[in-house]
From TrEMBL:
Protein name in UniProt: Kynurenine formamidase isoform X1
Keyword Hydrolase: yes
Keywords: Hydrolase
One annotated GO molecular function: arylformamidase activity
Keyword Lipid metabolism: no
InterPro entries xref list: AB_hydrolase_fold, BD-FAE-like_dom, GDXG_lipolytic_enzyme
Entries under PANTHER family matching the protein: AB HYDROLASE SUPERFAMILY PROTEIN C4A8.06C, KYNURENINE FORMAMIDASE
Organism annotation: Thrips palmi
Domain BD-FAE-like: 71-246
Amino acid sequence: MAEYGYTELDVQYSPRFWVPRMHEKVVVENHIEVTNAESDRVRASVPYRTLRYGDGPREAMFEFGGDSLPNEAPIYVYIHGGYWQHLNKEMSCYPVQPLFDAGIRVMIVGYDLAPEANMTQIVEEVKRAGKVIMSRAEDLGSSGVWFSGFSAGGHLTGVLLTSGWMDSLPLKQIQLIRGFLPISGIFDLKPIVHTYINGPLQMNEEEAERHSPISMMASQNYNIKIIVIFGQHDSPAFQAQSRDLFRNYAATN
């Protein structure tokens, strides 16, 4: 049932309405508080460097691990969420500690946000970031790379998986990709066009279709793993997005 001021579709795509352990009015505030605290702690205790991949103000990423890890350490890439218009890499370092403790190098990717950037720009930025990461992995002699992201970051992870982006890489770099792990992602953007979320994005139907991983499915000839994850309490719309991506990918590969 729609909340006052929101359509039913708005509610389906508003995660704050689907958190059973707290009221929707404090979900976002709590998320920001928790992720900022852990991200600040991580940056104060785990060695990291900043790598730029473009000229945009947010076209940069953190690389955690430094010389504390061997060059051949595997790499885990995390692309933050925020509906392509909120959050940043600085407050998205919360996955780092257990991965670093396990000997894994971690890349936290930032990107420009709406309304300053549109969906086409954001997608192209993340593709460039992915290329920089793969060049870095090759230079280090990394044993392999996993790409992941949450919510909008799950969508951008799906773009790297389905858009033909891998075909643009040298074969040696493609062979370093171990898998993709989109978490609670949005893989069909067309419903977003009809929600309040599209206000800053200003996507039309054509742009939404063009950047929907569900519309980019193609057979892949690479030995990679795909793990599609969604939350137990995610809305039915979010759960359907992940299930549909999995089914469509499985049907074409």
